Amino acid sequence: MSRSVLASAALLALAALAQAQTPPAAPATAASGPTAASPARPPADPTAPKPFAEIIRGAKEQPGLFPIWRKDEKTWIEIPKDQLNKPFLFSVNVANSIGERGFYASQMIGDEMAEWRRVGNQVQLIALNSKFRSDTASNKLAVAQAFSPSLISGGPVASAEHPDRKSVLVDASGFLLHDIPGYSTRLEAAFRLPYAPDRANSFIEATRADAQVTTLTARVHFATPRIPAPPLVAAPVPLPTPPQATPDPRSMFFSFVYSFRALPAQPAAIRHADPRLGHFMESYSNLGDDLRINPRVHLVARWRLEKKDPSAALSEPVQPIVYWMDKNIPAKYRESVKAGILEWNKAFEKIGFKDAIVAKQQPDDADWDNMDSTHASVRWFTGSDVGFAIGPSQRDPRTGEILDADIGMSDVFGRGTRRFATDDVRPGGHGHDHHEHNGWTGARSSLALTEQHCTYLADQANEFGFALDLLALRDGMDLNGPEAEALAQAVMKDVIMHEVGHTLGFKHNFRSSTTVTQAQLKDKAFTEANGISNSVMDYNAYNLPLMGEPKASLTNTTLGAYDYWAVEYAYKQIPAEQEAAELARIAARSTEPQLAYGDDFDQGVGGPFDGFDPRSNQRDLGDDPLAYAKKRLKLSQELWERVQARKPQAGEDPFRARRSVADAFRQLGMTANNVSKYVGGIQAERIVPGVTPGQAFKPVDNAQQREALRFIASGLLSSNSFKFNPEFVAAQTLDYNEWADRGQPLSIPDAVAGVQGRVLDRLMSPATARRLIEQSSFLPEAQRKGAVSLSEVYGTLQTAIFSELKTGAEIDRMRRSLQREYLRRLQAQLNRATNGAAVYADAFSMARYHASQLAKELRVAAAKPGLSVETRAHLVETQDMLDSMLKATLTRS
């Protein structure tokens, strides 16, 4: 008999024995029918969330607004039921980055008002739409239906609801280890490579929580599968190089600091903005009243500042504005940073606050950082191509209350400014694309970071190199001596005052430098007491004297009159019933000369906002910007002369002299743009109808326009302004140890072309042509005679650029380059297919008329005997190009 048969027989015998030993069941009665029997337990749902206690068994809790639970590599966020559908502030900062092309550490990205929503067993993190609102209950539903919120992240609940805590868990990794900030797009924009987050190699690296904020830091790995081979044929537009600062350009890590911060239970009092002052704003459309002419509402962005003793003339605040100074700030700069922060207390004391602002130093051995959304800070960071400071802030969208602010300070000050003469790291390598790469994807924050865009430190670093070289070569100042050290500390304080101003809610004021006279700038006692400008929010040039002029403060030493005014409007405590009248009184002071104001758009940000008021500029100084432009050219020429006369020293940076030359050209490039604003310029005043007297727009005085034209023609467009010895140019070596920075031999014509191109771009632009044509419409009939015309500008420009045609002189390389650049822009003016409606018909016909005159002059000049073959070839080529342009088929409309 087989084993299986024996086993079956044994089992049957055991079953029979068990049945014999079991007593028989009692017969069923009517009272104990089927309904009295225990129901069968349904099978468990395999998809149902596991019990809360089972999930967190062995995990450690961090109590807080949203408690955090951690166990091994697992992290959960606990969401109480009563916190669902309740708004909070969700913000993102970058703690670690790659150090190039706009991707830097210690940066504030942005924020959105958000809330948790539960849909079945799904939890969503929703960004609320705060751009459109209604102040009437009857219309709130319609507004909510019209404008969608956005999903930041989502995922399944990780646990069933806790029976006592009434909360659920969500997996933090599932929510946060993907591309919330949209960095894949920014990386592609910077490097033109398809980077994507790699979840498998990303993790939650740090967490903390308290009653006000819950913060998690996600270490996210971004990667691209391959770096494509370079094209066989060069692309028409050069492609950017792959990342240079990472060991492998295919792989990089970012640490994103995500903060979930409770909004104030009692919203702060709002204050409406006034266009006559420059405050950052929380703006939205109020669609609650269809009778409003303009539904836009603009609230002043400001910290909540309230007196402990409202009746006292001078009182400490209930809660001061506290700035934590990052432990990465070098010890030698900390006192200057602190001084720049606390300087603003002078303005707050004027409106009754004692110690409104406090500066605290993070201990060097601190094991915490200030990257969450509850520590306003000054952070010191570095990068391979970095050179800027920035002062962004985060605010309550409901009221405009500033809740957090983080000043980012690049170490370019220590390297590119303090040791600029001997170091080879160029500041400002990020150009103007910092916010394009680091801006938060949310519309609110993108706008906020755009308006807070600041290159003050980068410009300071460039100009400081210029100033140090000039002072060292003129006066023998030791770059390592006490005088240079004192200047470096003064510049540090100046930059910090500027950036703290941004974090207090103040925009740039690019017109304030024109409210100090030339005589005051030469008065040392005046500048030490009042600074060199009436606002630290301007991009003030250094107060460098010409040779033989008296010396005064080189940079800003204190707040200006405008800064006190801006603080008063935003922060003065006013009884509610008096607020409207008092704010109107404060704003009405805008006509006082010291309070002149012009923002980024006034000075020019590009496109249609090219800046047409020559009083609103970056990097000018004094009440006569045209006079300053002439002074700047003289200062540049002096530096060039002294650099050429200086003998190089053994062991110094091989690029030192080249940098001195480049610094002067860089500053002169800004001057070229500023002085060109006079031509066709319009002075703009911030007029409030029925309140502010005067004109909103007034053309620049004709005499000033013509003086600017003469300076451009005889100064900036003249080769005589740029004299360099051939021996000096030939002696400028390269850095043969650094392939990437080796570059080419020094080219003065190319540098000059950069400055002159700024002039041509503005004077030959459609916007300038339009203003010249239309400026008479701003003037009474009696004042129109003698106005600067478009024909006069084009004729003056063309005569200056082609002056050799009448004199018969040779045309050198520098002048040939200028003439070609002129023709290139003239071709754009004559090409209606590319210009379309951007160019007025009058501007087109005027450009064509002067081009025809030039063609005649070229034919005569080319026939003159005795010219070199280079000049003759250039004239023939220029004539042929111009003839082709004039003969081209026009697109008539």
UniProtKB/TrEMBL annotation:
Q: Per the record, which residues fall in region Disordered?
A: 25-50
Q: Where is the composition biased (Low complexity)?
A: 25-39
Keywords carried by this UniProt record: Hydrolase, Metalloprotease, Protease, Signal
Sequence ranges assigned to domain EcxA zinc-binding in this UniProt record: 482-806
Signal peptide segment: 1-20
- Claim: Protease is one of the keywords in the record: yes
Q: Which CDD domains match?
A: ZnMc_MMP_like_2
- Bias (Pro residues) occurs at 40-49
Classification via InterPro entries? DUF5117 (IPR033413), DUF5118 (IPR033428), EcxA_zinc-bd (IPR032534), MetalloPept_cat_dom_sf (IPR024079), Zn_MMP-like_bac (IPR034032)
Q: Which residues form the DUF5117 domain?
A: 107-308
Which top-level group of life is the source organism from? Answer: Bacteria
Stated name of the protein? Zinc-dependent metalloprotease
Gene source species = Pelomonas parva
